[in-house]
Specification:
Distance between the termini of chain A: 53 Å
Largest sheet of chain A: 6 strands, mixed
Number of domains of chain B: 1
Strand content of chain B: under 5%
Chains: A alpha/beta, B mainly alpha, C alpha+beta
Oligomer: heterotrimer
Number of helices of chain A: 13
Number of strands of chain B: 0
Number of helices of chain B: 8
Order of helices and strands of chain B: HHHHHHHH
Number of strands of chain A: 17
Radius of gyration of chain B: 18 Å
CATH topology of the domain at 121-279 in chain A: Rossmann fold
Structural class of chain A: alpha/beta
Helix content of chain B: 55-70%
Order of helices and strands of chain A: EEEEEEEEHHEHHEHEHEHEEHEEEHHHHH
Helix content of chain A: 25-40%
Largest sheet of chain B: none
Chain lengths: 443, 203, 324
């Protein structure tokens, strides 16, 4: 099939050799978990337990607030100790439910066994996903039941399963595709059924040949095709995937994939959807890649939501030498942490430990107008101007240059020879533009 | 030596040369250094620069044609050529007032943006310069129109080039001692130098 | 002679008639008061009034959308001039001043990580919640300084400092601060709590030497019940505070400060004084001396202008005067 091309993109070394060959290991149950109430896009969930309550693994402990929100479930069996502000991956304190785990029955026992979900009406499957609190596990954490409920006038013809995992260092999705192939394929069929999509593609980057082969060999449905995509960051971004596979661009300024009739879903989310519909299992654990040359023993771990990162680091042997950076996520879009008490959440695809010698200090200069950032921007924007406008507080001009279409992938910052923090400048400008819009709306 | 009024000439080429000559080779701003005040004053933003340039084109063409006609019908027959400066200024002042009123009515935003520079078109040396030059060079009516249009279009060109550069300069990190007018003048000088490249193209 | 005369006057005449006709045809109706109001305004286009510039404010005043004394840069005098143009009366408004409720300079506080990035508080606060160990304190990167139209804010040792003389109370910095620790207070309430941390005293000591620890000594010392401790932070009620400064004296952390010098002094009228001595007993600063038989006197050096003595005086012999 003819593949299209998205503009720009970079080719960082993918560093996946550190963990790509390591099978998924189950992390031992932590003694305490801290489950934040906000692990998704949308208002935080409301707690429905109080300190002192006993909970079992899989119990719902917080209710979604509104439609675009997600439920939160206990990831361990134990007692609720507190609901208080606790370190969060965003860097600020955020309310979290602290559960002290106790008891042996920490394995989740499925409450359901739906043998043939495809015989039920498709609309009845969405509440199962909603109840399980599933959100986008590629990192965006958008509530999945909302994504799978497009409005009446938007018909979906294509479902794309995102197994690209373009972020360097991360191999969680790769291992998932190798070890839970049939479950993922079943999940794909459920999603196809819900959306009534005519075409489904499983997009995998060409640096994962074993996963490509594995998926191809196990798919019997002729409507699901595995496509291998050339290796380029950020191939795994939603809009870039749609451009590459369908040749269409999601409309600028607030457009969504459903506007071009497509829905993109991460393989991790697909697996969680399978578990929720087939077995009624809520989202209580995820696969996280613990990697980097700063950790003694890299692993692909299955961890319970709410596990403090310091427990995970200790499990993998701890820091090898002088700590440099601790990043939740990947090196391009992950969030740098200063406190290792931060818990793993639904969107934590990786824990990256960089040793001191791999972390550089930089001093930004003025834009030299080399244009490298323009060449690599996958959305076709002008990051040099966006950065300069942000510096000079010319936010209206930045908005005119499609500031809000930036996906914050980091390609521009990666190539800038003047070492300018372009993504930070763009994020700051976005914040100011939205703040001004709110002010105008209030007046 | 005044030619009698001919509104047509068989040789189209000479009009082309007049236009190119006054637009590029003898650009009024970059080669003849006239009209510098509004050039530096209104060239901060592209929209105001274009608005200013258009107003100048309007005033220059109209005043040059009026000057040509006054020269032909009043000044020369009655041998009062020495009054041309005064009379031309009169006509120019009236025209600028008219333009100001029209702009205030049609585009208040542009009116605010141009501010003091609009009435300053009256004292813009380009306007008087073109009016006087066409009497000196002995053009006919069509040549006058083309010459005056080219001269003011040259001014517009200069404004567009300069304001485009100045908008970028605002975003640059200029050393403290060069900020403001200093870098603007240096840039204008470099642009002048570049326009020297056209010299010799047309006699 | 004649041709010159005729040509000059002729052309002039034609031009003036033409312009006269054009002026009538292209006339724009504009309220002449706009010009007068614009003259009264300082013309700085600073935006402190909340409008896009002086002409926008003038229009808003004419349309009765903006208050007559809305020009903060011009102050009271401008307000009176504008009122004159419109033929209105203006009530006296309280002069406000902005205060940064933090004293956490680099010397007094700690950082929890090294921040590398844009020098702008609004941008820095999104990175890990800001690098200052105190989650409530001033980040000191100068966002407020950049937006102040009057140049009243400077950054000293990673802390924003407001010059109370230059500040006109426009409130633009209040909107800009991402931590919301700049407050507009009435100018006369000069004693302020210069801390915004709601952390417990133990935690505050970890990251700041000069923050409020919620010890409540100020609450106990205040003779006017004007200061209370809520959420581990002292809060002053501007309605009750007399700026006497007792709380400033007792605060162990130097968190409370008097921003303006004492300008009020009590004065005893010797003719009315009955030497009962109640004022001397109640004065917390030992600023009244005297004994039975002779009129009491105020020691102006010690008097803080708090007014407790005035409440006590049975003979109405004490008055408060403004001292410059």
């Amino acid at each position: 099939m003819i593949l299209h091309h998205f503009p720009g993109g970079i080719h960082p070394h993918d560093e996946k050799e550190l963990t790509a060959h390591l099978p998924i290991e189950d992390a031992p149950i932590p003694s305490r978990v801290f489950i934040p109430l906000s692990q998704h896009i949308g208002p935080p969930a409301e707690p429905i337990v109080k300190p002192g309550d006993p909970v079992r693994v899989g119990d719902k402990i917080a209710e979604a607030r509104g439609f675009v929100s997600a439920n939160i479930h206990a990831s361990v069996t134990g007692t609720v100790r507190a609901i208080r502000p606790y370190p969060h991956a965003s860097g600020r304190l955020a309310p979290a439910i602290e559960i002290e785990s106790e008891g042996e029955d920490q394995v989740y026992v499925p409450t359901k066994d739906r043998q043939d979900p495809l015989s039920l009406p498709p609309q009845t499957l969405i509440p199962f996903i909603r109840e399980a609190g599933i959100v986008g596990m590629g990192g965006a954490t958008f509530p999945t039941h909302v994504k799978l409920s497009p409005p009446e006038d938007k018909s979906i013809h294509t479902l794309i399963i995102n197994g690209v995992e373009c972020e360097p260092y991360l191999t969680a999705d790769h291992r998932l595709m190798l070890e839970h192939t049939r479950d993922i394929i079943e999940g794909i069929m459920y999603i196809r059924y819900i959306l009534n999509a005519s075409f489904s593609f499983v997009a995998i980057e060409i640096n994962k040949p074993d996963a490509i082969r594995m998926m191809q060999n196990n798919i019997s449905d002729p409507h699901i095709r595995v496509i291998s995509l050339p290796k380029r960051y950020p191939q795994g971004a939603e809009k870039q995937l749609i451009k590459t596979i369908l040749g269409q661009e999601v409309p600028s300024g607030g457009g969504l994939p459903m506007d071009v009739g497509a829905v993109v879903q991460n393989v991790g989310t697909t697996f969680a959807i399978y578990e929720a519909i087939r077995w009624g299992k809520p989202l209580i654990e995820r696969i996280t890649t613990v990697t980097g040359r700063g950790i003694k023993t890299p692993k692909n771990l299955r961890v319970r939501i709410g596990t403090p990162v310091r427990d995970i680091i200790a499990l993998c042997g701890g820091w090898k030498e002088v700590p440099g950076k601790l990043i939740l996520g990947g090196p391009m879009m992950g969030i740098n942490q200063y406190d290792d008490a931060v818990p793993v959440t639904k969107g934590t695809s990786g824990v990256l430990l960089l040793p001191r010698e791999e972390v550089g200090e930089y001093h930004p200069h003025t834009c030299v107008r080399c244009g490298r950032c323009v060449t690599v921007c996958p959305m076709g924007l002008l990051p040099n101007f966006l950065g300069v406008f942000s510096e000079h507080a010319r936010f209206a001009d930045a908005e005119r240059l499609h500031l809000l279409d930036c996906i914050e992938c980091g390609s521009c910052t990666y190539v800038c020879p003047a070492k300018r923090p372009l993504v930070q400048m763009i994020r700051y400008a976005k914040g100011e533009v939205l703040r001004r819009r709110k002010k105008v709306a209030r007046q | 030596m005044a030619k009698h009024v001919t509104c047509w000439s068989c040789d189209m080429g000479q009009y082309f040369y007049i236009l190119i000559g006054v637009l590029l080779v003898h650009n009024f701003v970059f080669s003849q250094f006239l009209g510098i005040c509004p050039f530096l004053g209104v060239s901060r933003r592209l929209e105001t620069a274009v608005g200013m340039g258009m107003s100048v084109i309007f005033v220059v063409v109209l005043s040059s044609v009026a000057a040509f006609l006054i020269n032909l019908w009043i000044l020369i027959p009655y041998h009062i050529e020495y009054l041309k400066t005064v009379i031309f200024i009169l006509v120019i002042a009236a025209l600028v007032q008219l333009v100001e009123m029209v702009i205030q009515k049609t585009s208040p935003v542009l009116y605010q943006a141009l501010g003091i520079y609009l009435p300053l078109i009256t004292t813009n040396c380009i306007v008087l310069g073109v009016a006087v030059l066409i009497t000196q060079k002995g053009f006919d009516l069509l040549e006058t129109t083309i010459y005056s249009f080219g001269a003011s279009a040259g001014f517009l060109l200069a404004l567009i080039l300069f304001s485009g550069i100045r908008e970028r300069l605002e975003l640059a990190d200029i050393p403290w001692s060069f900020r403001g007018t200093a870098i603007a003048l240096i840039t204008a000088g470099i642009l002048s130098l570049s326009f020297m490249g056209f010299s010799g193209l047309v006699k | 002679m004649l041709p010159e005369l005729i040509s000059l006057t002729g052309i002039g005449f034609i031009a003036s008639i033409g312009l006269g006709i054009a002026a009538k045809r292209l006339a724009i109706k504009e309220d002449p008061r706009i010009e007068k109001i614009l003259e009264a305004l300082p013309g700085a286009n600073c935006g402190a009034c909340g409008y896009a510039g002086c002409s926008a404010f003038a229009r808003a005043v004419l349309a009765e959308e903006a208050p007559v004394d809305g020009c903060l840069a011009g102050g009271v005098s401008t307000g009176l001039k504008v009122a004159e143009v419109l033929g209105k009366k203006v009530e006296k408004t309280e002069r406000m001043v902005a205060v940064v409720a933090c004293q956490g300079t680099g010397t007094y506080t700690r950082q929890r990580f090294i921040y590398q990035g844009i020098d702008n508080c609004r941008a820095a606060v999104n990175i890990g919640g800001g690098s200052k160990a105190c989650a409530y304190g001033c980040l000191g990167l100068g966002s407020c300084q950049q937006v102040c139209p009057f140049g009243a804010i400077t950054i000293k040792d990673a802390l924003a400092v407001i010059d109370t003389e230059a500040c006109v109370g426009c409130g633009i910095c209040v909107d800009e601060c991402p931590r919301d620790i700049i407050h507009l207070v009435p100018r006369k309430v000069s004693v302020q709590v210069l801390c915004s941390s709601q952390e417990t005293g133990k935690n505050v000591r970890d990251f700041c030497d000069i923050g409020c620890i919620g010890c409540k000594r100020c609450e106990q010392a205040c003779p006017f019940n004007a200061i209370t401790v809520k959420n581990n932070l002292a809060v002053i009620d501007p309605g009750k505070c007399t700026a006497c400064g007792i709380c400033v004296d007792v605060c162990p952390q130097q968190t409370l400060k008097a921003l303006l010098p004492i300008t009020r002094q009590a004065e005893i009228d010797p003719g009315k004084c009955i030497s009962c001595g109640k004022c001397k007993r109640v004065c917390p600063f030992e600023a009244i001396f005297g004994s039975k038989g002779a009129p009491y006197e105020i020691l102006t050096g010690k008097c803080r202008g708090c007014g407790l003595c005035i409440n006590q005086c049975e003979a109405d012999a004490i008055t408060m005067t403004e001292v410059l």
